[in-house]
Prior knowledge:
The chain is α/β, with parallel strands linked by helices and 407 residues long. It has 15 helices and 14 strands. It has helices spanning 69-82, 114-122, 131-144, 164-167, 173-178, 188-202, 255-262, 268-277, 280-285, 290-298, 302-326, 336-341, 343-350, 362-366, 391-403, and strands at 9-15, 19-26, 32-40, 48-53, 58-63, 92-99, 110-111, 150-154, 210-216, 220-226, 229-233, 331-335, 373-374, 383-386. The longest helix has 25 residues, at 302-326. The radius of gyration is 22 Å and the shape is globular. The two termini are 18 Å apart.
Amino acid sequence: MTAHRAATRVLVLNSGSSSLKYQLLDMREAGRRLAVGLVERIGEQTSRLKHTCVDAGDTRELNGPIADHDAALKAVAEELTRDGIGLDSPELAAIGHRVVHGGMFFTEPTVVDDAVLTEIERLIPVAPLHNPANLTGLRTAMALRPDLPQVAVFDTAFHTTMPESAARYAIDVKIADRHRVRRYGFHGTSHAYVSRAAARLLGKAPEEVNVIVLHLGNGASASAVRGGRCVDTSMGLTPLEGLVMGTRSGDLDPAVIFHLQRVGGMSMDEIDTLLNKRSGLFGLCGDNDMREIQRRIDEGDEEARLAFDIYIHRLKKYIGAYYAVLGRVDAVVFTAGVGENAAAVRAAAVSGLEGLGLTVDPERNAVRDDRARPISPDGARVMVAVVPTDEEMEIANQTYALVGKDD
């Protein structure tokens, strides 16, 4: 007689407008990855599925048209079945989905039903690029496994603990409430994961520490986390506000929009495209890859140097502002693609802030490592650290905590 095995696996799905990222993890074994993959260019003739079975060390690629997310998820299911870990496995406990915008309604991971789908759909006006794709992934997975819990984990949820003084914009309250205008924040799963990991590096519980998290990728955001709860974050109603990013402007005088429309003769769609896709580092110097910008700086390119300096100036302003918000800071943590890999960015961001207890050890900062680690000197008043983010693990942990079954 075959022994019963508990359902301890979680499939994590991250559905983009034309892509589908996925990971299958076994939560019985501290989130051990069983499979990882990516489907890209969905809806095109040049679609590609790259799938890796971790245990076997086997990576396969499929090239050819994948019509839609339904076809993409079915193709993923076939690859998992080939490895003996398919969607029909009784060991699969749930499917966890990244959903970008949950508004103020969703403050924690939520098992999805028709009412939840309706509310996510209602939030499309404030997340027009993300929520439709997230909904497609949810509906497709629900159709494939209607018997299985589908859990939505929201990027905005971690930031719903912000006080009203941080979340409100200073505009007419009735108009703001009618149109749901407030600071929501994004990258929440990353900020949650990284702030807890920073507490572990300090040897303390999350409730005991204050942390500034700097999530620096092509999209970038900062957060102030007091005792494990977010009290402020740089992104706002949309992911456009805050730090200088790869192609987004970040903070901007709102009157710039009126000026470009009235004086520049630009349409609102053109301004939207300018601020989201043709600004930031790209708008300043024509490159949004920090590695390329650093190469150009090393060759004496003044345009790249100015873009870098503007990027760092904004970053320092947020570090200082969040230091003031928190009052006491135990750690400043860098994460995501730029934060984890660009030593020059980390060094420049804290340069001159020694009076706040912030400094990096040049040798530690120069080390490339995929582990969480301090880069400040021993005995520093504030730990400066690098913590590789793991949003998929965070989604899996939150999903399993909600629906997991004891072995």
